[in-house]
Structure formats: structure tokens, C-alpha cells
Amino acid sequence: MTERQNESPRQSGAETIPESIPESRQLPADHPPVPAPKLGVLLVNLGSPDRAETASVRRYLAQFLSDPRVIEIPKLAWQPILRGVILRTRPAKSAKLYASIWDRERDGSPLKLITEDQASGLQARFPDCRIDYAMRYGSPAVADRLAALKDAGCERILLLPMYPQYSAATTATVVDEAHRWMAKTRWQPTMRTAAPWYDDPAYLDALEADLRTQLGALDFEPQLLLFTFHGMPKRTLELGDPYHCQCQKTARLMAERLDVATRIVFQSRFGPAEWLQPYLDEALEGLPAEGVQRVAVAAPGFTADCLETLEEIAIQGREQFEGAGGAKFAYLDCLNAKPAHLDLLETVISRELAGWRESG
Ligand SMILES: C=CC1=C(C)c2cc3[nH]c(cc4nc(cc5[nH]c(cc1n2)c(C)c5CCC(=O)O)C(CCC(=O)O)=C4C)c(C)c3C=C
Ligand SMILES: [Fe+2]
Ligand SMILES: [Fe+2]
């Protein structure tokens, strides 16, 4: 083999070398193909089942809930509960919920399709990079998309866990998974991970503009705007996870920018342990008795609408509030693939690529 082909513009086998490439850059006929070096960006969100069907949801939940970053209970104690109880009962119920939000035309979950749209929207803004997306659980798998970026010649890859607030159960497990692939890879790309953007002015600007627009379009004036974040076991806060503090900071900085009363709550409790409080469902059920008849709910920790927003908040949350006597309820959707979100993600990606694009 000759020296490394960092500067080689070759894309494929020796017989396809264009005439214009100088002799010194050509590879011998028996050399493995070396694509031209590029920058890659991989957006990674949580993931969904491939279909809104029990078997598919069971596979997805088995992978998700076997992750020791998500369920911090020793494997020997947890697996019998997971296999013997949860995977026997939950998949059928969750499949029905997924069916209620499924995009039938594009045949996918909102979370996956919105992430796909974010990646293609960003690709148009970064013609010099290859932008792709993956799901931490389910498909497309992180390892497969990292391998595809590498095969396309990306020698430097920016990993973008799609969570504005860091938690071990979300951000860290994306990094773990990427590094498991790295550990099996001979010629590793250089990899960076984007920092969480929970207090970044670009994030707050995007949220503020979007929430103002959505609030302004309502047919009522909310007395209260609830900021709901996905919950975490309370124990994770005691163990040093910064998630709770980062959610609090996002909510406080947003409250300072908006001229409506706000409150922070946490949703999607799982299992019998105490989770971060106050809980969304209890808040919605208690508000009418406090005299709050008109409420709006926003979920600034979700970069894409998903089961936890479209079903748990927009459907169940409304029922809880109205069932307790509330009059007006509005769910404000996530930033999704809206231009304001692409602007924010462009800012984050450009910052994280600093030094790479210039030298690339
Ligand atoms: C946005 C941040 C998220 C945190 C933090 C988080 C922690 C966390 N989640 C579970 C259990 C479940 N979460 C489920 C769905 C789900 N969770 C997030 C995000 C966070 N989770 C998203 C975006 C989604 C939606 C996925 C989709 O396809 O739309 C589910 C599955 C759904 C169900 O069956 O109800 C479970 C279970 C735990 C235990 C946890 C922290 C330890
Ligand atoms: Fe979750
Ligand atoms: Fe805190």
C-alpha cells in the first residue's frame, strides 16, 4: 500500500480515476477505495417502533428499556420484570397509542419523520457537509448511519444528540452507542459531540418567536403557559444528572422573555419510583380548582413532536384538564422542522464545526 490518501479525491475503484488527478495521487490497482474526505453531521433522536403494531413496539421497548443508561436497576433484577411483566402488557397498549399519531401517508412515527425532515432541511444549508439522522433505538440505527457517513468519506463527524437539555438517559446513551461503533472500527473518523443548548440565546430566540406566533394564533388568551419537560427518576438528580437544572434554567429564561404567567412541570412517569415533580397530569387536574380555566402547554425539551407530546399532552392532557372543569386547552407544537428551528440548529452545527470547515 502507498501512503495514506488524505488528499486523494478518489471516489471509487482504480479504473474510475479521472484523467485530471495527478499521477502522484493515484492509487495502485489493488488498493482499497478511498473516498474524498468530507465532514459529516449525524442528528440522533430517541427512536420509535418501525410500525404501530404490538410486535414492533415490543422489539423497540425491549431495546430501549434494556439500556442501563435508561433503567438504572441491576440487570439481574430488572430483566425478569421487563421480560415477565412490562413486555407482556405495555406493547399492545403503546401500539394503540402509536396508531393514534402515526403518519400513514409516509408510514412512520412523527418523531422519525420530523427528524428526517430536519436532516434534509439542514442538508440544504450545509452543501459542504453530509447531514444524516439516526435513532438511538430502532431504525435507522446509529452504527449503520455512522458507517454510511464513513463510507461516504466523512473523516470528521459531528454527533448531534437532539436534546437541548443533557441527561444520561438521552445524550450520554447516544455518545455511548456512537463509541461502541468506534470501538469496532479500524480507521475511525474523528468525532465531536455537540454541547447541549438549553441556555443558548439562539435556542431561546427560536422558542420565543415560535411560542409568540402560536400563542397569538389561539382563539383565547391563556391564563397560564405550562412548560412541560419529559420526566426522569428523582434519584438521577441526586446522583448528579444536570437535566433537572438545565430544564429549570430553560424555563426560567423563557419565562423572563414572555408576557404570560408560566410554570414548569414534568411528564411521562414510568414505574413506581418518584420522578421529578411537579407532575404534568396532577397540575392539569388541579388548575381549574385554582381558578385557571384557560391553559396552554409547550414542551421545549422535545426537538420533535412524538408520542409523549401528541398523545400524552395534546390528547390525554386535554382530557385531564377538561375533565377537571377547565374550559380552554391548547397544546403548542414543538419546533420540529420549522425554519426557526433550522436556524437554531444551523447556529449550533456551525459553532461545533469551527476549525473543521476551514481546514477541511
Ligand atoms: C426528551 C427527553 C427524554 C428523556 C429525558 C426521557 C427519559 C426517559 N424515558 C423513559 C421511558 C419512555 N419514554 C418513551 C418515549 C419517549 N421518550 C422521549 C424522550 C425522553 N425520554 C421521547 C422523544 C419519546 C417518544 C418516542 C416516540 O416514538 O414518539 C417511552 C415509550 C413510549 C411508551 O411506551 O409509552 C418510554 C417507555 C424513561 C424510563 C426515561 C428516563 C429514565
Ligand atoms: Fe422517554
Ligand atoms: Fe436543579
From TrEMBL:
<dbReference type="GO" id="GO:0004325">
    <property type="term" value="F:ferrochelatase activity"/>
</dbReference>
<keyword id="KW-0408">Iron</keyword>
<keyword id="KW-0627">Porphyrin biosynthesis</keyword>
<comment type="pathway">
    <text>Porphyrin-containing compound metabolism; protoheme biosynthesis; protoheme from protoporphyrin-IX: step 1/1.</text>
</comment>
<dbReference type="InterPro" id="IPR019772">
    <property type="entry name" value="Ferrochelatase_AS"/>
</dbReference>
<keyword id="KW-0456">Lyase</keyword>
<feature type="binding site">
    <location>
        <position position="308"/>
    </location>
    <ligand>
        <name>Fe(2+)</name>
    </ligand>
</feature>
<dbReference type="InterPro" id="IPR033659">
    <property type="entry name" value="Ferrochelatase_N"/>
</dbReference>
<comment type="similarity">
    <text>Belongs to the ferrochelatase family.</text>
</comment>
<feature type="binding site">
    <location>
        <position position="230"/>
    </location>
    <ligand>
        <name>Fe(2+)</name>
    </ligand>
</feature>
<dbReference type="InterPro" id="IPR001015">
    <property type="entry name" value="Ferrochelatase"/>
</dbReference>
<keyword id="KW-0479">Metal-binding</keyword>
<dbReference type="InterPro" id="IPR033644">
    <property type="entry name" value="Ferrochelatase_C"/>
</dbReference>
<dbReference type="GO" id="GO:0046872">
    <property type="term" value="F:metal ion binding"/>
</dbReference>
<dbReference type="Pfam" id="PF00762">
    <property type="entry name" value="Ferrochelatase"/>
</dbReference>
<keyword id="KW-0350">Heme biosynthesis</keyword>
<keyword id="KW-0963">Cytoplasm</keyword>
<protein>
    <recommendedName>
        <fullName>Ferrochelatase</fullName>
        <ecNumber>4.98.1.1</ecNumber>
    </recommendedName>
</protein>
<dbReference type="GO" id="GO:0005737">
    <property type="term" value="C:cytoplasm"/>
</dbReference>
<feature type="region of interest" description="Disordered">
    <location>
        <begin position="1"/>
        <end position="32"/>
    </location>
</feature>
<comment type="function">
    <text>Catalyzes the ferrous insertion into protoporphyrin IX.</text>
</comment>
<dbReference type="GO" id="GO:0006783">
    <property type="term" value="P:heme biosynthetic process"/>
</dbReference>
